[in-house]
Amino acid sequence: MVRQSFLPRWMHRLYARFFGYFWLPCPICGRCFGGHEGVHLLYLNASTGQMVCRACRDEADRKNRKNRFIRGNLRWIGSGMRIR
Ligand SMILES: [Zn+2]
């Protein structure tokens, strides 16, 4: 299994809480991750995606290719965060 990062999870959780990032379970593996840990998206449809943790980036890419979703302007629902 790919590590999410070199820092322990509790440090990421503190960072996310302290700086106002979300802390939510990854839609693929279910492990919690923070909004500061990069932008890797699992597309729900052509215009909407859901952030996944770093460890699931490749899996998200594979699913996106399978579903023929390409990178574009996205709006991530759930946190009010917009990605262009
Ligand atoms: Zn994950």
What is this entry, summarized?
With about 80 residues, the protein is α+β, with helices and mostly antiparallel strands. The protein is built from 2 helices and 6 strands. About 25% of the residues lie in helices and about 20% in strands.
Q: What's the arrangement of strands in the largest beta sheet?
A: 3-4-5-6
Distance between the termini: 30 Å
Strand content: 15-25%
By DSSP, the count of extended strands is 6
Structural notes for this entry:
The protein has one domain. About 11% of the residues have low confidence. 25% of the residues lie in helices and 21% in strands. The protein is elongated and about 35 Å long. The strands form two sheets. The chain has a four-stranded mixed beta sheet. Strands 1-2 form a two-stranded antiparallel ribbon. With 84 residues, the protein is of the alpha+beta class. Helix 2 links the parallel strand 4 and strand 5. It is built from two helices and six strands. The relative contact order is 0.20. The site of zinc ion (ZN) has 8 residues, from loops.
